Amino acid sequence: MNGAECLIQTLVAAGIDHCLMNPGTSEMQFVAALDRVPGMRAVPCLFEGVCAGAADGYARMTGRPAATLLHLGPGLANALSNLHNARKARSAVVNLVGEHATAHLRCDAPLTADIEGIARPVSGWVRTVRAVEDIGADAAEAVAAAQCPPGQVATLIVPADYSWSPSGPPGTPPVPARRRTPSAEAVREAARRLRAGKAALVMSGSALFGRGLDAAGRIAGATGAPVYASRYAARIQCGGSGFQARRIAYFPEPAEAMLAGLESIVLVEAQPPVSFFGYPGRRSYLAPENCAFHALAGEEEDGAAGLEALAEELGARRTAAQARPPEPEQPSDDAPLSADAIGRIVAVLLPENSIVSDEMVSSAEAVSRRLASAARHDHLPVTGGSIGQGLPVALGAALACPQRKVVALEADGSGLYTPQALWTMAREQLDVVTVIFANRRYAILEIELRRTGATGMGRVAAGVIGIGNPDLDWVKLSEGMGVPASRATTAREFRSQFAAAMAERAPRLIEAVIPR
Amino acid sequence: MNGAECLIQTLVAAGIDHCLMNPGTSEMQFVAALDRVPGMRAVPCLFEGVCAGAADGYARMTGRPAATLLHLGPGLANALSNLHNARKARSAVVNLVGEHATAHLRCDAPLTADIEGIARPVSGWVRTVRAVEDIGADAAEAVAAAQCPPGQVATLIVPADYSWSPSGPPGTPPVPARRRTPSAEAVREAARRLRAGKAALVMSGSALFGRGLDAAGRIAGATGAPVYASRYAARIQCGGSGFQARRIAYFPEPAEAMLAGLESIVLVEAQPPVSFFGYPGRRSYLAPENCAFHALAGEEEDGAAGLEALAEELGARRTAAQARPPEPEQPSDDAPLSADAIGRIVAVLLPENSIVSDEMVSSAEAVSRRLASAARHDHLPVTGGSIGQGLPVALGAALACPQRKVVALEADGSGLYTPQALWTMAREQLDVVTVIFANRRYAILEIELRRTGATGMGRVAAGVIGIGNPDLDWVKLSEGMGVPASRATTAREFRSQFAAAMAERAPRLIEAVIPR
């Protein structure tokens, strides 16, 4: 057995069965070994940012890591911004990076770079294999590190000669560390605060879906406390008849208004709410200045278990009644498209149990409001603010949940950071429907430009923010990558195209042209 | 004046007049200030890797830095792999990165990242502005650092609040440091070695074009010493009737054969030749084991001046006679395309004084051989081995040399790392003609897989290396980005399309389909 075979065997034995890869020469032994070691699905990507974003999406939906396979420092560098998002999502990722053969490292060859240095800002754990005998144990430790609650990016750097040399046996699969259950004292204190009133729950992580969210609904029923989702949570269960957490607004003014009057916030796997950017003359923290925080569960703890214990402590049995928003009125057939019109149509047509990857940016508020009345679905927002994750995260979610419909709601500007994801969707025939909100500009920046106190937008600034010179043709871009596509400019066109896409089980893209 | 205005004024006064930008909220004051401070051409890009690669191409052709403008840690991360290439090219780049407002940094907002940590592996100089009063001086120092011979990436990180706050006056433009002329002793020693025989010149940097290359031709004429170009040089003057350096081969066997028998190598702004990758059982250094090295000029020195002094020392007046390769025979009209056929056609049609950005990878050897007989042109190869530079470097070269034809010779796999460069070519109406060598696979990896000792390619490995499932349609991709495109499958089609593109002055793409 050579080092590459040992590495893959160790990963497979530890439950890692997907590898998102964009390999080069130094990873060729790994690629060759895939034919000899069964159990690993190899998913090639044309750009490393797609690998990283897909691994993030996979982890968000399964709670388990996928592996990446990246080529030396530059390959890792291309993955870095989506690894940043994965880091902020607390996603478990086993990030494999090839390195030059050890004897070659002395020579300052073109591709030689400080791989550990590049990896560190996005990784919770970084190791370079130091001897071929260690490769199995190192791989097992990488898996353990990635799964260390709440989950993190674990980067393992593998010199090429250790891949091609005879190795020791595979590493022992790690026993995944369990999340600690919050202490009884933390639960009692949370109950005391909620009973005292003027208190809210702010949740993130595993608290925002499944049994955690159900328990939060009962707590809201018993106490009347509002339940908020962190703006930057990795996965939020929405829609349907179940309880819904309210997502904290993007801009600080409406976010502060949501939290106004609170004297106490109980945090569940969440940090104190903070605005996305700092602005002249505004605080960054969003809760009232005197608001006190109490952590029911830290990020590494089991927030869902904490919420269940809290519901028990409060004797909370009935889920809070929520006025489920009515099915939105449908836009008339010939209405020009808008984010709101798209939201109304998607809300009606989205199938039960879908997954929505959301990188709508300036269209997000208008659409998300409508999706509250859609069928039950999982919402995957941008966690780390680095755009270019929407399509890769959708791809990863589709790999993780092949039975579920995945819908990527994507801004045209953001989609252009990682359009290569479409090719892998076509190659793997994944059931991902992408909707491009084509306003032909970085619309969010028009707002942000004013907010930072800039006194106005001149010709040059408008030219930088507009991306409509020339217009991007997303139908051609998508077809160029192998994904069938169509363009919609009216509500009728969008409805018919989106309905058709929901009825298929194949990749598809709709460019929805919305007014500038 | 606010900090953003001060920053731009300082840069413009220091001669920086191009900014390749993909800004976000934290850079909005910079964008707004572009309308108030004249003299800076703002070139928006849809992806940060395009900004970095274009700044590299600009520096290779002008010897002067362009600025980038990148959004926080993730924006920098997306630029990193092309900054790696710029670092290896010794290109001067003023790399501007926005940072959160200082008060916001405490809050661990989604986009907060270790920007200095991300920058350091690719930068020779990194600084975060620490007070708004410093912004002018810091910007001037960044320019000085970027221009410090031979040139490097200087990263200046600018917190948003310093951009929007009142600043001090602009910084004093730095006096660019001059390259040191090699010592008389270094020149005499080089002469002694060349006279002794079994010696060669290995050159890189500024030695490979203009007066440096001319002097090398005279030295070769006087001594008979072969003159080699480093494989990883940033810019190599080729073709025409002038003297040509011979580029060291990519794979170690032919490279070793070129250098076999040498007892002495005189390095001019170059490192001892090293192979791209290390392979089982092979040395990484390419020169014979007992070969001695002597540096006529270090990378930071003036190699051209050193070569002129050396020619003088040797009394070398006549340029070496080189058998100029004959104009290649043209492929018959209906011949299916191949890299060789394309090389033959381009060699005949390439206009005098063109610039060729080369990221052909597996097609490179076949084409480059033919281009030796083309009209005089500048050849811009991959310096750092990170693919995805070909189109951005072409873009930057076109900004630097608006009167010259730029031809990007690009592999289909490599082109997919930064296809967004096409949009900026269309937006700026740059005279760049892109030829895609579409073999629908990572062909180089088939060779590399065997070279690393892997025992064969199974079904999974072949699937990972093939990128033809589905085939990419580069005509659609290009048109989707706004660049007119066509497909060629025969020599006749390619010849007619390429000739038409040479006659225009506008961006254009040709997908040349070559057999798998």
Commentary on this structure:
2 copies of one chain form a homodimer. The first copy, chain A, is of the alpha/beta class. Chain A folds into 3 domains: 3-164, Rossmann fold; 184-313, Rossmann fold (3-Layer(aba) Sandwich); 339-513, 3-Layer(aba) Sandwich (Rossmann fold). Helices cover 38% and strands 17% of the residues of chain A. Chain A is built from 20 helices and 18 strands. A 7-stranded mixed beta sheet of chain A has the order 9-14-13-15-16-18-17, sandwiched between helices. In chain A, helix 9 (210-223) links the parallel strand 7 and strand 8. In chain A, helix 1 (3-13) runs parallel beside helix 6 and helix 12 runs parallel beside helix 13 (364-371). The longest helix of chain A has 17 residues, at 72-88. At the A-B interface, helix 2, helix 4, helix 7, helix 16 and helix 17 of A face helix 2, helix 4, helix 7, helix 16 and helix 17 of B.
